[in-house]
Amino acid sequence: MIEKAAPLPPTVFPLAKGRAWAMLAGSLVFVALGIVFLVAHSTAKTTVAGAPAFCFFGFCSVIFIQRLLPDRPELVLDDPDAYLARAPKLVRRTASMNARLGFGPATMATSTLRVPPEAVLDAMRRHCPGLAIQQH
Questions:
Q1: By three-state DSSP, how is residue 4 classified?
Q2: How far apart are CA 92 and CA 86, in angstroms?
Q3: 6: nearest Cα among 83, 78, 106, 87
Q4: What long-range pairs does 100-105 form, CB within 8 A, spacing at least 24?
Q5: pLDDT tens digits, residue range 23-76?
Q6: Which of 4, 9, 35, 50 has the most other CB atoms within 10 Å of its CB?
């Protein structure tokens, strides 16, 4: 009889704070441009460009601020079965839509990690050797 191996301790990847600060700064530049388009050049074209820029990059700025304020890891890899159980409702809905499109339940950007994407893939394979991973 084959016994199941003891689970690995979680693999923790910290936030690349320099990249996150740079992304926040870039988002704030586009928020400012959106405001300039809305206020200084109030034509139909600039309003159509300024309003979405302000809204989208304002939202991005809030997300980056939320990532930078608490001192917590950017990514923790452990038991994949528990991922969706503890994920926020929006993440569970996105995972459900991804499954209907033929993708896996987790989609992640690695741009705010201090390690290359290959290090994340290696850790994922260590935690769950049978895991199907699609790279795009």
A1: coil
A2: 9
A3: 78
A4: 103/134, 104/132, 104/133, 104/134
A5: 999 999 999 999 999 998 778 888 888 999 999 999 999 999 998 988 888 888
A6: 50
Question: Long-range pairs for 36-45 at CB < 8 Å and ≥24 separation?
Answer: none
Task: Please give the backbone phi and psi of residue 26, each rounded to the nearest 5 degrees, phi first.
Answer: -60, -40
CB-based burial of residue 34 (10 Å sphere; 0-12 exposed, 13-18 middle, 19+ buried)? buried
Q: Cα(12)–Cα(76) distance, rounded to whole angstroms?
A: 5
Query: What ranges in the chain are assigned the alpha helix state H?
Result: 17-39, 44-68, 83-86, 89-100, 117-127
Which 8-state DSSP code applies to residue 41? T
pLDDT of the residue at 60:
95
Place of tokens 């990514």: 75
